[in-house]
Design a protein that fits this description.
This protein is α/β, with parallel strands linked by helices. The chain is built from four helices and four strands. The protein has a four-stranded mixed sheet, sandwiched between helices.
Length: 91
């Protein structure tokens, strides 16, 4: 399934999107899908991390992620080791 398709489907379901894709904000088709479908995205930008560390980042920041999902999309947050920070739209 193409990225733009699953972004659309997840957004239709009302699901926040957890992903690892450091280049998403530079891919016009994916950004357009995020905008069009008002997606709420949280991305691990370091795709080289072990999967356990990626999962740990989402778990560590779950309260901040839950708080952010209360806001309507579209947006993309980076999930870092010490915080989440907005990638798109850039401030």
């Amino acid at each position: 399934m193409a990225d733009i398709e699953w972004i659309e489907e997840a957004s239709k379901q009302g699901w926040p999107i957890l992903m690892k894709d450091k280049r998403i904000r530079h891919r016009q088709a994916e950004i357009q899908a995020v905008i069009e479908h008002k997606a709420r995205c949280f991305v691990i930008a370091n795709g080289e991390l072990p999967s356990a560390e990626m999962a740990n980042r989402f778990i560590t920041h779950k309260i901040a992620i839950y708080a952010a999902t209360a806001e309507p999309g579209p947006y993309i947050y980076s999930v870092r080791s010490d915080r989440i920070s907005i990638l798109y739209p850039s401030s």
